[in-house]
Design brief:
Layout (H helix, E strand, L loop, with lengths): L1 H4 L2 E9 L3 E3 L9 H11 L4 E4 H7 L8 E4 L10 E4 L2 H15 L3 E6 L1 H7 L5 E7 L7 E2 L8 E9 L9 E8 L3
Parallel strand pairs: 1-6, 1-7, 3-4, 3-6, 4-5
Antiparallel strand pairs: 2-8, 7-10, 9-10
């Protein structure tokens, strides 16, 4: 149980200045720099996502235990583990993390999943996309006073990026 206590639940999310995180089931931008960071931060760690996010990706993420939360009876796909809710997904992810000696569980979306896991999160890996994005899926506002910014790096838009961005790490303040 001591090993489990050290496992951190983290949200990893990219959000535009207007709060948009998705458009018609896809990302509303092309940000190769952010995808590279996403891969680096999630590799070897369990990832938790909703069914719609999984379907938008179209396949399990390699070298990660993929846990998909869904209310859809009978949903399955090769290479994923299905959970019916937050508690079951956390139990699965903790088991995988302990087995793989991972120190972090990564929650990768979508909006409802971020909202459900926010109370459990100790860290947020936030990419602030410096643009106004078109889309209907938004990240619900969260109380920033509960979080302490521990890192920030601004990145100019690279050759394969639609916008500049800032990579921000937030950690939950101790009560």
């Amino acid at each position: 149980m001591a090993a489990e206590a050290a496992i951190l639940v983290s949200l990893i999310v990219a959000v535009a200045e207007n709060g948009v995180i998705g458009n018609a089931g896809t990302l509303p931008w092309r940000l190769a720099s952010d995808l590279k960071r996403f891969r680096r931060l999630t590799l070897g760690r369990p990832v938790i996502m909703g069914r719609k996010t999984f379907q938008s990706i179209g396949r399990p993420l390699a070298e990660r235990d993929n846990i998909v939360i869904t209310r859809q009876d009978g949903f399955s796909a090769p290479g994923i583990h299905v959970a019916s809710g937050t508690a079951e997904a956390l139990d699965m992810a903790t088991t995988f993390a302990v087995t793989r000696d991972a120190d972090e569980i990564m929650v990768i979306g979508g909006a409802e999943i971020y909202q459900a896991f926010l109370p459990h999160a100790g860290r947020i890996h936030l990419t602030e996309v410096h643009a106004q994005a078109r889309g209907e899926t938004r990240l619900a506002p969260f109380d920033r006073s509960v979080w302490r910014e521990v890192a920030r790096t601004r990145a100019a838009a690279g050759e394969r990026d639609d916008a500049p961005m800032s990579f921000v790490t937030l950690e939950r303040r101790k009560a």
